[in-house]
């Protein structure tokens, strides 16, 4: 369960990908925060959700292993509420 996996996480705001190698026991909240930090996103992590295979992962205390993210898997992090376009 503590095997390291490599995953690609896309930040929807910028359409940039971050590649992370983390233990499969890493909580989703930590993955999300690492991506936000890597992209220089100053927003509070609670403003964002994590999706895997199109499904929102609501319980971010779950680990990558718990939700079945495989090595080479992809997640997306996006705002909970869309911002208005000006």
Q: What do these coordinates show?
A:
- The chain is of the alpha+beta class.
- It has helices at 28-38, 64-67; strands at 4-11, 16-23, 48-52, 55-56, 74-79.
- A five-stranded mixed sheet has the order 2-1-5-3-4, covered by helices on one side.
- The longest helix has 11 residues, at 28-38.
- The chain is globular.
- The chain starts with a strand and ends in a 7-residue tail after the last strand.
- The mean pLDDT is 88.
Instruction: Determine Rg (CA atoms, Å).
Output: 12 Å
Strands, count: 5
Class based on secondary structure composition and strand pairing = alpha+beta
Please summarize the sheet with the most strands: 5 strands, mixed
Q: Quickly count the helices.
A: 2
Average pLDDT works out at: 88
Q: What fraction strand? A: 25-35%
Share of helix, binned = 10-25%
Strand order of the largest sheet: 2-1-5-3-4
3D shape: globular
Low-confidence segments: none
N-to-C SSE string, H for helix and E for strand = EEHEEHE
Distance between the termini: 46 Å
């Amino acid at each position: 369960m503590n095997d390291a996996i490599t995953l690609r996480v896309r930040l929807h705001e910028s359409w940039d990908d971050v590649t992370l190698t983390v233990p499969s026991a890493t909580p989703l909240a930590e993955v999300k925060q690492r991506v936000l930090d890597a992209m220089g996103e100053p927003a509070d992590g609670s403003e964002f959700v994590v999706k895997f295979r199109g499904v929102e992962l609501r319980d971010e205390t779950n680990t990558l292993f718990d939700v079945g993210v495989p090595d080479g898997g992809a997640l997306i992090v996006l705002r909970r509420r869309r911002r208005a376009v000006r």
